[in-house]
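Lab manual, section 2.4: Encoding a predicted structure.

Procedure: take the sequence of the chain (189 residues), apply the prediction step described in section 2.3, and record the output as structure tokens. A sample record is shown.
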Amino acid sequence: MKKRWMTLLLVAIVLFSVCAFADDIALTLIPLSGDISGPAGSTVGWGYTLTNNTALWIQATAVSSDAFQNGTPNLVFDFPSVAPGSFVTLDFSLVANLFCAAPPCGLYSLTWDATAPVGFVNSGMFIVSSDFYDGDPNNGGNDLGPAPDASAAYSATVTGSGVPEPSSLILMASGLAGLSVRLGRRRVH
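Recorded output:
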């Protein structure tokens, strides 16, 4: 009887320790849906939140993604250290700001080929790998080995061109010219 309780206790401890790490490190994309879009020739990208709900520090060590087509991906991740029970967030940005001193910033950027077809979609998973540390990795903490990977699904879609067709520009210019002539005649009378 005692042996059965010990075996049951051991199984419970093993199951609890496996479950304890299940979602303790999480990667969330910005935007939250992981879906971005932009016209052919443009640069789009993802920001991130890396959450550490463990009792140890983590140091991001690698990022991987599925293959991209009709565009050039660029890893812009800053490989942060994350304290126990905290998180790090960085929006995607192509311009310098308070949180992005040396753009581009975020997780990944994607520059669509100029010939990328409208409606084309790249989709897949980003995976961030980390190591556990017993203290701040940037201040003498010791590397304790690999932490569980964190992943998030993404998609990027080519949208219609943001540049108007030449015939649309001519139509708009003639409309503005007609409007200015009409307004000019009202002021004279």
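Check your result against the sample. The helical segments are 2-20, 166-188.
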